[in-house]
Structure formats: structure tokens, C-alpha cells
Amino acid sequence: MSTTDRVIPDRLRSPFEQRLKSWETLLLFVAIGIFVANSFASPYFLNAWNLSDATFNFTEKAMIAFAMALLIISGEIDLSVASIIALASTAMGAAVQMGVGTPGLVLTGLGVGLICGAFNGVLVTRLGLPSIVVTIGTMSLFRGISYIVLGDQAFRGYPASFSWFGQGYVWWVISFEFVLFAVIALIYAVLLHKTNFGRAVYAIGNNATGAMFSGIRVQRVRFILFLLTGLMSGVAAICLTARLGSTRPSIATGWELEIVTMVVLGGVSILGGSGTIVGVVIAAFVMGLVTFGLGLLNVPGIVMSIVIGALLIGVIALPRLWAMWRAG
Amino acid sequence: MLKQSDTIMPSERATAEPAVLALSGITKTFPGVKALSEVSLNLIPGKVTALIGENGAGKSTVVKILTGIYQPDGGDILVNGVPTAFPVPQAAADNGVTAIHQETVLFDELSVAENIFLGHAPRGAFGLIDRKAMTRKAGEILDGIGAGIDPGHKLRDLGIANKHLVAIARALSIDARVVIMDEPTAALSHKEIEELYELVESLRAQGKAILFISHKFDEIFRIADNYTVFRDGQLIGDGAVSDVTEADLVKMMVGRDVSQIFPKRTPDPGDEVLKVAGYSHPTEFEDIGFTLRRGEILGFYGLVGAGRSEFMQALFGITRPSAGTVEVAGTPVQIRSAADAVGNGIVYVPEDRGRQGAILDLPIFQNVTLPSLGRISGKGFLKLAEEFRLAREYTERLDLRAASLDTHVGNLSGGNQQKVVIAKWLATRPKVIILDEPTKGVDIGSKAAVHEFTAELAAQGLAVIMVSSEIPEVLGMSDRVIVMREGRMVAELAGDDLQPETLVRHAAGI
Questions:
Q1: Cα–Cα distance measured from residue B345 to residue B454, given in angstroms and rounded to the nearest whole number
Q2: Is A7 within a domain?
Q3: In terms of Cα–Cα distance, which of B78, B86, B63 is closest to B228?
Q4: Most buried among A179, A219, B112, B449, by the most CB within 10 A?
Q5: Shortest Cα distance, chain A CAs vs residue B382, angstroms
């Protein structure tokens, strides 16, 4: 083996070229297409305030979807997120009855989220249980507690300063929730794509054994990811509770599947190992635009979920069909 | 690269006997690569044909074409002289072609009998599986190959050698006319290899055509009747093994002369870097203790299942020992995880490259920098330029062959994957490197490179532990050799005691 002057290039294709041929680009065109279709379908669509309202369809879900994206890339899943919202919201409602002020309510929401995430994380990383089983269990457990506390009652009486988290506007039509969504998206994009932690997430998702044999503290990373998902559920619980102004135990029912749909639509492999935050951001807009556009056309909710489901299958099947067609 | 003069055209001799299965002018192209270029291969009943070539020569592609996994772009597959297509793997099986793969595809949770008869189990009333008949037939086949395996056992309870026997039994159960063995001895111990040879001989006596893929020349000369050499997707030569020497085959294979001699070293052991005492595990090993100096290569020899890898993985923090202490450079350390081991300068190149050593779906540079990110990043933030610099520095030292540093490791040959794993660890600037079967499944050219590099590392002051089941390798490379048997150290040999017979005697407990 003689040493040669042969040099291995860093890359064959530029990052720009890779990005151009990516899932995210395809999805962006889908989003633009839906936007254009919507503006033709309804005269009320191209209105700043209507569009601003439309963002509430996805901001809270997307906050959780970013954390969920990391979790799914690492090869795990958390199906208890919507139930964490219910439990966190119930805890905040109970705190209101005890006269706790807005800062205390926020801490309560975040704290409950973290505790729930830690509970999931301990069961998965310490006991080695599969996360899908653990979180199906805690999905019933967390919401069950809300039902026991509330029955068919509701907590109300949230202070006006608290409502601002769900109803406030930072500037003109830009809501606080939308700004929070953008900031969280940025934080998660940096965390996943620009840090050692993010690299470890990809490594674990591709080959957890290989990652462990490379000196990555796999269980620690997994535990942190469950904590983050719990925390983001707490954040979403604050926004949603503030927006609705009340807590019922049925709050955010079915959101876990919508959030997983958003993540998968964003190009995150359900088997783990690949995906980007940009993809999830675009997927959030796609789902928000579809829901809002159909809402303007007075399409009932059941039909909307059919459309979202068809969209998910369609967008995922499209590249596969394209490849099959080209292969003859 | 290939000169016309060193191409030997397929001889008349090889085609004189009727082949039960033959390839004629087969070409296969993948995007950007011509994997096979008009190659021919003849498999004759009652003959063992050795397929020889470096990694990337096209051997695996041929196996996949013969078993219906790939379709050739040109040329014919001839079954008894008749052109036949194998559009799906089942078509190859229907024509009596069966393959026993390097990493056998079997099902751990099924019983031995179920594994043997999966897909073609004997049927009883209502078309249900006749379990009694299946177990009885499986027992007959296993007895026929001299394997004392209970057909009712779950496969996961068997060792790797017995799993291979089950794979062979499976091949026999479908009444194969052509048996393809892809490096069948790679994971076997000395005694098991002998048993496999006997088995191959009995298959030959039954008139089966056998394609035997191997990197080991001693076994080619021991077992094969004919040879076929591929290089860079082309047929370089074929004929009877009795007409050629090892040097001829090596020359055809690599296209140049390669010394089979291990690198000359002048061992100059420095300070003690590692001291292990009383290392024990409840089931795998007991009371392992030794010291290791800078610049030293310590060999670990033993049969498969002697507990060598299990001990190394405990030393690397993957499993917890029940007792024992480790000192690195005179300081006692606690190793509770692989991260602890890496932090203390102990790194491990595992035997199972695909699962443990590398992350195949990540690019080369990300594999190389993974354990070093803490050092080369800025407060936890990635520095891409620095990553490429580090990856380039270490992969070039190892003479890695790759299209780019952005290429996924899974697209590299076995030898180059191994270089990525070694580069990954060298980039952490370790004190002790543990190499577990470093040349398993690696072709002869890369093998020499790994040996040379290992010697160079030792010369630069790294302490090396080399686990190997290949006697020439362990003797050729090591300054000292520890022999393990059934989880215990049974001998520590150095100097004139380093003889093949001595090693085998201690390992087998004779």
C-alpha cells in the first residue's frame, strides 16, 4: 500500500444541490400550490387577519412536533403528548382555583410537562421498555388523572395576563404564539443541525448500538429527548389553555396523531435516522393551510381529517410512484 | 489498469465437463460502476470451485445474480446448458441453487427445524405443517452432516458455528444441486473449520456443484478443485487448483506481487499504560489480568466462544464486570460505559463492523468525528470545516478509498469500512486500541495494509491488543500472546513459545 497523492473530496454534490433535490423542496411546492389554490377557492383567504387566524391551527401542535421530530429521528416516539397537555392544563386550572398568579401558572404548566416527560424517559431508558408501549400507557394515565379531577366540569377564571399567551399580538397581525413558534423552530433547527447533541440524535437513530460503541451516552440523550417533548407539551398546554380560557379533560384530544402526521409529512423517517426541522416547519404550514382553506369552504371536520390523511399518504407515495414510473 | 497480457482467457479445460450451472458473458452495471464485465463461471457437479478476488472484485454481485437477487444487464445464466432467467430468488431456488451467506440469514426466534424447513415444510392434514415429520426430517439431515443439534431448540440458543450448520442443513433440505458458500469459515474455530471441510467433501461426493468463496488460500488449496479469479469485475483466470501455486493466485487477484510476510518490527516497549487485574464476569470470563506497555502488541488467541470478545467489551465498558480493577498509566479508573473507556484512552474496534463498529447510513466524516466531537466543536456547536479536516487527516493516513468524505460508510467495501472505524478511534488520540478480529472479511490487499498500520501504530507508542482467530496473524503480529479457553486465561506466551502447535494445544486444552 503506497501512499498516493490522491485526495478524497469532501463532497461530490454541493449542499445546495442536495437541498434542491430534497423532500423539503417538494413539500415547499406543495405548500405553495395549496396557498394558490386556497386564494382562488375563497375570496376571504387573502386577508392578513384571516391568515393570522389560520396560524393558530398549527402553532401549538408544531411546538410539540419539533421535539417529537428529534425523538422520532432518534428512533423513539411519544404518544402521550396530548395527554400531557390535558394534565398540565388541569394542573394550571387547579392552581387558578388556589389563587396562583400568571407566573405560577406558567411554571406549573412547564413543570408538569417536564415531570411527565421524565416519567416517560425513566420508563424507557431505565427499564428498557419500548417507548411506543410506555407512551400508549401514559397516554391513558395522564388524561385519566384529568378526568378524575374534573369529571364533566371545567376550570375557568384564568387571569387576563395569562390569556395573552394564547390571544395576544406582538405587532399588528403577528400573534405571540406565532412568534413563539418561530423562535422554537429556530432553537430546534440549531439544536438538531448545528450541535453535537443533534449529531448524536442522528447517530442513535441510525444505529443505536453503533452509537453506544462510539462512546455516545445513548440513554442520556434519549432521556433528554423525552424531557424536551414533555416540556414542549407543557408550553403548548399554556398557549392552548390561554387561548381557550378554560380546561376540560378532553382538551387536545387526538393531537398526538396529528403531531406525528406533521412530523412524518415533514420528511422525518418513522423508522428513525433522518429528517429536518425545515421539513416539519413546512409540513406545519401545509397542514394549517389545508385545514384553514377547507374551513373557509365550510367543509366539516370529519372531511378535513380525511383530506389530511389522504394528503399524508399522497405526499409520501408520490416520490415512490415517481421512482417506480421512471424505472418502468 | 488491466493489461491485456495478464488476462488469461477461459480455458477449454474448464468447459470440458458439463456445467450444471454456468454464467456466460455476464455484465452488470450499477450507476457509475461496472460491477461485472462479461464474466464467465462454470459450476460442475462433484467439484468445488473457488471464487477468488479482492473485495469489490464482483464476487458478491455474482452470488446475487446466481441467486436471483440481481438481474444481469447482459449475458446468460445457463442451467445444464439452457439459458434460464432467475427473475426472483425463488426461481434460483427452484433450479436447485442455494446460498449460505457470510452472515447467515436465519430466524432466532424459530426452532432449528422451522429454520431448516421455512417455506417448504412437510404438510399434513388440511395443509397444516406436519411438525412431527418436520422434526424427524430435520434430525435426519443434521445427523447426516454430523451435527449434534436438537431440531427442537430455538435457534438463538445456538452458537455461531452451529447456526452455520443449520444454514447448511437448510441448503440440503431443498435438495440443492448447486451450493454457494460465501466465506463460510469466517466465523468458525479451527476444529469447526475441519468439520466444515469434511462436510464440503461429503457434499462433493454426493455430486453437488459447490461455489466456495474465500479469502484464505490454505483452505482453497485444501478444499477446491477449480478456481476462478475476478479482479475489478473481470474474469482474470480459471482452471484447476492443482495447476497453480498460491503466488500465482495472489498475483492474479491483486495484479501485483504482495508479500505475505508480516511487517518487521523492532519491539521497544515503553511505560506501562494498562494494568488489568482480576476481571471477572458472572458467566463469560473469570480472573483476567495482564499488563500492557506503550508500543506493545498483545495478542489474544482462543477458539470462538473462549470469552475474548466478551472480555474486551467489558474492558470497553459495554458490559459490567462483576469484579476486577483497571489502571491506565498507573491511575485506577472506573469504566462504566464506552464513553468512560474512550475518555480514559481505551478504544475498541469491534468484530461486528456493520452493527457495532460503524454507522453505515451516516457519511464517512460523521463516523470519524463522532467520538471526537467534544474536542473539535465549539462549546457543543459543530464546526463542519474542522470535522472535514480531522476526517481527512486520519482517513488519508489509512489510505482510505472512497468517492468523497460525504459517502455513506455502507457503500464502502469491508476493508475500507474497517479503515473508517480505525480512523474514528485514532482521531481520539487513544492510549490503548483493542482490535477484535481486525481482518475478518477483509481482502488480502487491505489485510496487509491493516497489519502494516497496526505495526506502525505500535511503533508510534500506542499499546495494541489484537484479538484474532487466525494463527499466522496472531503469531506474525504479536509480541506476547494470551490464550483463553472457556473464559479463563490458560497461557501467556512470548519469544520461542510462540509456536502454532503451542497455541492450538493451549486453546483446545490438550
A1: 17
A2: no
A3: B63
A4: B112
A5: 5
Q: Which of B150, B174, B198 is the last residue of a domain?
A: B174
Cβ A196–B381 below 8 Å, yes or no?
yes
Domain range for B144 is 104-174
Chain B residue numbers with beta carbons less than 8 Å from the beta carbon of A199 are 366, 370, 373, 382
Q: B400–A211: do the CB atoms touch at under 8 Å?
A: no
Section B64-79 average pLDDT: 91
- B339 in contact with chain A, both atoms CB, cutoff 8 A: yes
Q: How confident is the model at residue A311 (pLDDT cuts 50, 70, 90)?
A: confident
What span, in angstroms and rounded, lies between the C-alpha atoms of A175 and A49?
Answer: 10
Best mutation site among A196, A271, A326 for testing chain B: the one with the most B CBs within 10 Å?
A196
CA B442 remoteness from chain centre: 7
Q: Quick one: closest CA in A to B399, which residue?
A: A3
Cross-chain residue pair A8–B400, CB shorter than 8 Å: yes
DSSP string, A102-124: HHHHHHHHHHHHHHHHHHHHHHH
Query: What are B161's three cell numbers?
Result: 458455528
Domain assignment present for residue A244? The answer is: yes
Q: pTM, whole model, 2 decimals? A: 0.77
> Residue type for A144, please?
G
CB atoms within 10 A of CB B82: 8
The 3 state secondary structure assigned to B335-396 is: CCCHHHHHHCCEEEECCCHHHHHCCCCCEHHHHHHHHHHHHHCECCECCHHHHHHHHHHHHH
B357 with A210: Cβ contact below 8 A: yes
Residue A42 lies in a domain: yes
- Give chain A's domain count: 1
Mutate to test the interface with A, among B319, B359, B409 (most CBs of A within 10 A): B359
Q: Do B359 and A196 touch (CB under 8 A)?
A: no
CB pairs under 8 A between A and B: 107
- Identify the domain containing residue A87 by its residue range: 19-327
Sign of the CA dihedral with A297 first, then A303, A305, and A306 last: negative
Q: What angle do CA B95, B98, B102 make, to 5 degrees?
A: 155
B60 in any annotated domain: no
pLDDT, average across residues B344-369: 93
**Per-residue model confidence (pLDDT) at position B187:** 65
Say if A253 is an interface residue toward chain B (CB within 8 Å): no
In a domain, B395, yes or no: no
Task: Tell me if chain B has a CB within 8 Å of the CB of A8.
Answer: yes
Burial B292-308 (b: 16+ CB within 10 A, else e): bbbbbbbbbbbbbbbbb
3-state secondary structure of B111: strand
Indicate which CATH number applies to the domain containing A207: 1.10.3470
Q: Answer yes or no: is A1 within a domain.
A: no
How far apart are alpha carbons A5 and B176 in whole angstroms?
49
B402 vs A contacts (CB less than 8 Å) = 8
Task: Answer yes or no: do B406 and A210 touch at CB < 8 A.
Answer: no
- Over 70: is that where the pLDDT of A285 sits? yes
Amino acid A282 reads I
Per-residue pLDDT of A207-224, as tens digits, reads: 999 999 999 999 999 999
Cα(B357)–Cα(A210) distance, integer angstroms = 6
Of B127, B150, B174, which residue constitutes the final position of a domain? B174
CA distance A127 to chain B (A): 16
Kindly state whether residue B442 falls inside one of the protein's structural domains: yes
Query: Does the pLDDT at position A78 exceed 90?
Result: yes
Spatial distance between the Cα atoms of B259 and B502, rounded to a whole number of angstroms: 26
Position B74 in a domain? no
d(CA A2, CA B399): 8
Whole-angstrom distance, CA of residue B188 vs CA of residue B305 = 10
- Give the span between the Cα atoms of A55 and A287, in whole angstroms: 10
Partner B contacted by A326 (CB < 8 A):
no
> Residue B7 pLDDT more than 60?
no
